[in-house]
Design goal:
Layout (H helix, E strand, L loop, with lengths): L7 E8 L4 H12 L3 E5 L12 H9 L3 E4 L12 H19 L5 E3 L9 H9 L4 E7 L13 E3 L1 E2 L4 H14 L2 E7 L1 H4 L3 H13 L6 E3 L2 H13 L1
Parallel strand pairs: 1-2, 1-8, 1-9, 2-3, 4-5, 5-6, 7-8
Helix pairs in contact: 3-4
Amino acid sequence: MFPDGAKIAVVSSWDGGTLADLEMAEVLDIYGWKGTFFLSPEQFGQEGCLSADQARALRERGHEIGARCLAPADPQTLTAEEWARQVAGSRERLEQILAAPVVSFAYPSPFDLDRLWLTEAVRAAGYLSARTTTPADLLASRIEDWMRLPVTAHALQDHMQLRERWDAIESSGEGIFYLWGRPDEILDDTDLRADLECNLSWFCGRLDVWYCTQGELAAHLLRRTAE
């Protein structure tokens, strides 16, 4: 199902766009994980936020840059036209900055899955996948709708909760372990950082696992579906 016969795909994604993203990338590198960092391009250069050069550096290290809205936005307050402009404009701006494709999107919170025009605007903008924060007890490799990609667990959940999700995937024979969170909520707290590193280390270095970005995951599985 996954490259090199792997049975499980491990993905992590990170919201915020702050300087803590750089530190999170360093932590992920230690344990062999990849991250998809979701950014709003209009935040570049603001106090405490990444610059365009730092976003490019993250990508050059093997991580993925995904898009949020052009600027932090609440979709509950936007018209359909403004939402579509935010979604498409963010991808266009990031691709200009990175000189590379941007194929992954993350919805802001709160996100109403019943408002179909939200997901259809993301689809129309050309993204391969869009992450929600909807938890899935078991995330299989056959995704029903890539514009409504669920997650497995939050980075602040305790180790036993993550183990339960992992064990469910292993028992099923194959699947996706998708961890998400905000670096600026974790790395400044000594205990939370220690817990995160403990979890990353426990799930790292496994021969039957493919450690990938959200974009790599979507591209691989969509290609297999088309074959």
